[in-house]
Specification:
With about 100 residues, this protein is mainly beta. The protein contains no helices and five strands. It has a five-stranded parallel beta sheet, with no helix packed on it.
Length: about 100
């Protein structure tokens, strides 16, 4: 199942079968802890938001292969052991 969500992202936690989520251009400042339940997520697009950091649970999404973080206000990434292949797009973020 692939979903493009342009609105309230808190609802995502009940959609545990999601494979792809696009939350681009939503002025998001942080991800709710409930997103940790998205264990099947392969692609997460958080580009063009207002994120300054990412929660540690991002490293527990082991099926995630694409993480788009471009055009955010990131100062750091969480310390996680990434044991899988992932493409992280952070172009134009402040790091």
């Amino acid at each position: 199942m692939t979903a493009v969500i342009n609105g309230n992202y808190v609802v995502l936690s009940s959609l545990t079968s999601l494979v792809s989520v696009e939350l681009r251009e939503n002025s998001i400042r942080s991800l709710p802890a409930s997103c940790e339940k998205l264990k099947n997520l392969e692609r997460l697009d958080l580009g063009d938001n207002e994120l300054t950091d990412l929660p540690p649970f991002i490293g527990q999404l082991t099926k995630l292969t694409e993480l788009w973080l471009d055009h955010n206000l990131l100062f750091r990434l969480p310390k996680v052991n990434i044991l899988w292949s992932i493409t992280i797009q952070i172009q134009y973020s402040i790091m």
